[in-house]
């Protein structure tokens, strides 16, 4: 089959313009390295936005995909399949969960979580108990419900009217939650233990513990959005384990499939009962291919040596970025946990995170941003230390061009 050459210009001809991708089109990946159409090599500190947790072209994931591809791809949930059941059992064994619902993306997992929270309150306390408390600067997805629960109004602009019954408190401010929560009205508090898109902002341990207590006192469910912080990203399989705060519902996606679209909502048996037959569903959720890959991801990431290695890599990367920040006066702090790090720009450089991203790309290193003031890093959990050192050197070269030094 003859195929016409593909260029960045083709995007503008055939794609809806809701993205603004750069000129680079990657065509091959191996570990933490990516090559573009012209053969230029990059070190990947972006991880597809915290998705490729085991790097590119990981032999275990490729093997799991190929093995399942030769068996059965899809059945729908009219009947179940072996990979989905095995993965659900594994997730229950490794977490607080007793029941699992599979979906295809973080937004879908959160949609299920929020629907379950309202349904549970409706069944146990009545229709008036339907309000959700979320947090400013939070991000929970792009469906109309999840973008409304999210605390960034720019993503809702032009899509109103939004679903009602949603309130936004201040992150890390327990008193602001206390002013909003109500035993009669509040069905759930939804929080990212580490805000990702909101600037890689970690939750204070006492704040998250306080949310658990407030939810218990007000018969509300505590929902942790771990789409970005989960699957080993913090050096724990899920961040709730690091904080010692157990939610009632948890959403997970991104790294769960290592690049293959898959997501899950985890919850307890008691809460899960409210999603009875016919109340919610997904045609592709629990797809055999996706679950087979995710099984290999979880089996690999949950190994103690992998999780321990995240901490060592984190310190190496954090120190390197802090050193660069000090040499050029560009970062006020490097915050986050494990391999989800946010390098916060100083006052002098505020608003210019994208410039550092582009400069790094020119030098052969891929990073992310989290808003205009934070350079975000979310590399493979098994990125080799020499790759970290080379990536830091390349990023520093980019910084020099931006700073004119």
TrEMBL record:
Enzymatic reactions: N(2)-acetyl-L-ornithine + 2-oxoglutarate = N-acetyl-L-glutamate 5-semialdehyde + L-glutamate
Record HAMAP family: ArgD_aminotrans_3
InterPro entries, A to Z: Ac/SucOrn_transaminase_bac, AcOrn/SuccOrn_fam, Aminotrans_3, Aminotrans_3_PPA_site, Class-III_PLP-dep_AT, PyrdxlP-dep_Trfase, PyrdxlP-dep_Trfase_major, PyrdxlP-dep_Trfase_small
PANTHER family named among the record's database cross-references: AMINOTRANSFERASE CLASS III, SUCCINYLORNITHINE TRANSAMINASE
Cofactor info, note text: Binds 1 pyridoxal phosphate per subunit.
Record-listed N6-(pyridoxal phosphate)lysine modification sites: 254
Names of the cofactor(s): pyridoxal 5'-phosphate
Recorded name of the encoding gene: argD
Assembly and binders: Homodimer.
Annotated EC: 2.6.1.11
Name of the featured protein: Acetylornithine aminotransferase
Family: Belongs to the class-III pyridoxal-phosphate-dependent aminotransferase family. ArgD subfamily.
Cellular component per GO, a single term: cytoplasm
Gene3D superfamilies from the UniProt entry: Aspartate Aminotransferase, domain 1 (3.90.1150.10), Type I PLP-dependent aspartate aminotransferase-like (Major domain) (3.40.640.10)
GO molecular function, one term: identical protein binding
Organism: Marinobacter algicola DG893
Record localization: Cytoplasm
């Amino acid at each position: 089959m003859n195929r016409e050459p593909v260029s960045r210009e083709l995007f503008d001809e055939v794609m809806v313009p809701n993205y603004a991708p750069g000129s680079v089109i990657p065509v091959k990946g191996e570990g933490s390295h990516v090559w573009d159409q012209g053969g230029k090599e990059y070190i990947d500190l972006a991880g597809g936005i915290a998705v490729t947790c085991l790097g590119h072209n990981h032999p275990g994931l490729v093997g799991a995909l190929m093995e399942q591809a030769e068996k059965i791809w899809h059945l729908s949930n009219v009947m179940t399949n072996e990979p989905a059941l095995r993965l659900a059992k594994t997730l229950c064994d490794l977490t607080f969960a007793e029941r699992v619902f599979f979906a295809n993306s973080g937004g879908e997992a959160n949609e299920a979580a929020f629907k379950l929270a309202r349904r549970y309150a409706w069944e146990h306390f009545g229709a008036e108990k339907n309000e959700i408390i979320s947090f400013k600067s939070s991000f929970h997805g792009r469906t109309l419900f999840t973008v409304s629960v999210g605390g960034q109004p720019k993503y809702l602009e032009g899509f109103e009217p939004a679903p009602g019954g949603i309130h936004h408190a201040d992150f890390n401010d327990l008193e602001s939650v206390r002013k909003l929560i109500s035993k009669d009205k509040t069905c759930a508090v939804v929080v990212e233990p580490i805000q990702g898109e909101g600037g890689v902002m970690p939750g204070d341990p006492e704040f998250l513990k306080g949310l658990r207590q407030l939810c218990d006192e007000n018969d509300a469910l505590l929902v942790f959005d771990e789409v970005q912080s989960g699957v080993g990203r913090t050096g724990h399989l899920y961040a709730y384990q690091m904080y010692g705060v157990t939610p009632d519902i948890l959403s997970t996606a991104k790294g769960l499939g290592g690049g293959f679209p898959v997501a899950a909502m985890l919850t307890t048996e008691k809460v899960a009962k409210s999603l009875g037959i016919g109340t919610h569903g997904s045609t592709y959720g629990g797809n055999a291919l996706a679950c087979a890959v995710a099984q290999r991801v979880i089996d690999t990431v949950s190994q103690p040596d992998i999780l321990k290695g995240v901490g060592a890599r984190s310190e190496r990367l954090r120190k390197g970025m802090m050193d660069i920040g000090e040499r050029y006066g560009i970062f006020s702090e490097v915050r986050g946990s494990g391999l989800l790090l946010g390098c916060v720009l100083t006052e002098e450089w505020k608003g210019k995170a994208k410039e550092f991203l582009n400069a790094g790309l020119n030098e052969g290193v891929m990073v992310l941003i989290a808003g205009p003031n934070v350079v975000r890093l979310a590399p493979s959990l098994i990125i080799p230390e020499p790759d970290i050192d080379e990536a830091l050197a390349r990023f520093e070269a980019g910084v020099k061009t931006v700073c004119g030094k």
